Amino acid sequence: MGSGAQIVSLALPQSPLVCLDLWCRAGSVFEDAGESGMAHFLEHMVFKGSQRLQAGDFDRRIEALGGSSNAATGFDDVHYHVLIPPGALLEASDLLVNLVFGPRLDCSDFHMERQVVLEELAQSQDQPEEKALQSLLELACGSHPYGRPILGERQALLAHTPEAMRSFQQRHYRRENCVMALSGAITPSSIAALQAHLEGSEFGQLASAEHPQNLPPLAVKAGHHHVAIKRLESARLLMAWALPPASQLPAVMAMDLATTLLAEGRRSRLVERLREDLRIVESIDLDLHMLECGSLALLEAVCEPDELLAVQAAIGEVWDDVMGAPISAVEFERSRRLVANSYCFGLEAAGGVASLIGNGTLWKRSDDLAAPLRELDQLDPASLQAHWLSLLNPAQACVLQAVPQ
Amino acid sequence: MSSPRLITLPGGLTLATLERGGPPILAARLWMAHGSGLDPTGARGAHQLLAGVLTRGCGQLSAESLADLVEGRGAALRAEASEDNLLISLKCATEDGATLLPLLLQMASSPRLEPDQIELERQLNVQSLQRQREDPFQLCHEALRSQVYSDGPYGHDPLGVIDELEAIPLSQLQSLVGTLGQRGAVLVVSGHLDGDLDQLLASTLNQLPWTPARPGHDLPLAVDTTSGPSLELLEQDTEQLVLMLGCATPPLAHPDSLPLRLLQAHLGLGMSSRLFLVMREERGLAYDVGVHMPARRASTPTIWHLSSSAERAGEACTALLDEWQRVLEVPLSAAELHLAQAKYLGQDAMGRQTCGQIAERHALLLGFGLPADFIETSLQRAAQLSAEEVLAVAQRWLVRPHLSLCGSAPALEAAATAWRKHGLNAHL
After folding, report:
1. What value does the CA radius of gyration of chain B take, rounded to a whole number of Å?
2. Which ipTM value was assigned to this complex?
3. Are the C-beta atoms of B82 and B125 separated by less than 8 Å?
4. Closest Cα partner for A379 from A248, A260, A250?
5. Is 0.90 surpassed by the pTM of this model?
6. Residue B135: its chain A contacts at CB < 8 A?
7. Which residue from A26, A48, B156, B202 has the least number of CB within 10 angstroms?
8. Which of B174, B180, B176, B173 is nearest to B212 (CA)?
9. Domains, chain B, ranges and CATH?
């Protein structure tokens, strides 16, 4: 746009709806000392209205248009999205940018919404699996912000004020840090109309950031830990590895391939050995979390408490096997297809596409949707093994055994 | 919404196809009217166990070869039972359809049922049931399900009951396989289609001894809704109390279902919904609050749910009961009705964004034996319903809710006291 604010769009001719997805580099990683939970709490407060929109106006008007809205706060960024019929695009965009960039942060709303955030925290505390995962992140990431809960610490939440929230909002909701993504039932003319419409809006007129944002590099502390958690029914073996940041597309695609080879599907190495053959786990998952300071691979095995050592040993053996002999062409091709198809399946709905292009543009990655598939084609079994599978060495992982109390 | 093209394949299977264009992918759903509602007495969990085993080898393919074939093409395959049906789902690249679609028919008609694979699947299901107990919402939901449906067809989780699941013999699964499709089956394929699917599937079926019935022509299950206890308390050492308030309401095809779904949109759909506003925005009593109302062939449960801190348990319970009572006494305002109608209509487009969603929706319509224009008719009728009609339907179906509570002892006590004192309960 003229002002430098960015819009990115992609039409999906089959889609019955349009998704508007507003991304902002204002995740929990940017919270300063004393701001624990502020990024997420602010996301809640945004929905409490602006100078122009009373609390509830936004939701009522979007839903009266036949649309829906939601938001999510992550470690690195936050996004606010609406899904609406194509005819409602301009009206919805007006409402969205006014809501997100002009939060009223009213004092009594603030106290009420803090109760809601505390209820959200309590709800997550009552899920033992989430507690185990949070413990792993704390142990693995140490003092890095990724080790702290996005929902925040209870005591910090109780101490927050609308003024402190305003300060966080004004530091981060700036022109360089925001992107509007648009996908679904759109045409060149509806995109042009939206752009013209937004030029004079709160989004088009965003002020430039005063300070560059800092992304502290992530390191994972290898080690072994044990924790007892109440109300846990099955034990968990959790492992975390540090990986290259999301900005490195070749690494991201290679690690997607590596984790798929290890743990996606019955014929993947870990699932086959631990669940199908040895039968010592109910499930074993290895997920890749692409993050800006450094990505994380997180493994979760669900098993009986007395199988924890056997599970850990079997994971070590699987890794030794993977590294000890060449990866076959068949196994490589299986993993490559699973990754490529899963990526293509994600391009069907407007929400998925808006999220992909919005996040990619926000962090200045290629907006070429074919780029990930091209990176995949650059890989071969030998380099996958030597450069990428090797990063998942169990000896370099932070390991947590979680058992029922 | 576009209508599927329907043909009958050799042996009797109905094939529904929906060409969608778009990316070169497709989704398929093989829907069979054999769900956990038909689990034999003493064998709760049998259909889910069978569903899992169907993906573990069929025809000439061992469990390993089948997985190699599916995963080697980068496809996603799963099979699961719900209350009304057993569903095999596939998503794959269009170019792999010719290889993979015939497998769905083989899985349903000639699964291997290898004892070793059954044991594995059984153990995985037992462990899942055990792990589900970690989730207080799951515990609370289980209790309410029993209160509403006791030990009738809809009275248990499709995963089953641990003791019974552990004892299901191979012979019982074999006899279930013999009946698969006899109550009706349909294969729905949606997406970017390519080649002659009719011919491909017909030639597969010519070699398989499978004769499923037309979908939607069997009698719906007779689901007993004689009420169990109105209040159930489950003690758990948690910070929050989970509250679920609900009762049995009519099947999807019943004329009263639509007004109740409009009421659901009013009460529980989106951030403009009544329960969200009253419980969360005005009182800060909960993070998550909503109304659960699945699509069922027979009786459909309507469940209001929320979780609130132990120290506010009494207040949360009273507030929730007040809202239920309000639904029985106060008609929707014109603005509320209009908003509920807009949300109900909006939901329709949201449910047809992917070829998987489209295939699933048509499988359900065909499987339930609903008319081809069911969705259009419902959308039109929803736009014309009056607040008085909605109120009358609420008064017909929602008069005797059950309450299920899961949380710490003091929270249970506070909420149970609120329940006993409340006017809604007093007149039951």
Report:
1. 23
2. 0.95
3. no
4. A250
5. yes
6. 127
7. B202
8. B180
9. 5-206 (3.30.830.10), 231-426 (3.30.830.10)
